[in-house]
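Recall that a protein's primary structure is simply its ordered list of amino acids. Everything else, from secondary elements to tertiary packing, is in principle encoded there. The following example makes that idea concrete.
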Amino acid sequence: MNLVANVLTAIVALLHIYFLVLEMFLWDKPLGLKTFRLTPEFAAASKTLAANQGLYNGFLAAGLIWGLSLGGAGLSVKLFFLGCVVVAGVFGAVTVGKKILFVQALPAVVATVFVLLV
């Protein structure tokens, strides 16, 4: 069960590294434009804001990786950062679009359940 919890937590961390790359480096590139359904003009105007958002996703990933690196002592760290991801996902779903609930919050909820079951 611990292995499953750690794999799910790692998947959430990897998702946030992917979000970091999309928002910090690919926001105004074809993949970023397609992923976020942006016009080139909007992407150019909001590029700095997106990079800031990507940095925060990187902090979430770093916290999850930190929790994983602590082994059994990382339970509280993993739960804290998974909780942050859930809150960010719910806020994004309410303020931006429902898809964020499934892409960001749901994986973190599932990982949290398995972490709590360990």
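Residues 27 and 36 are 8 Å apart (CA to CA). Helices lie at 2-25, 30-36, 40-69, 75-95, 99-117.
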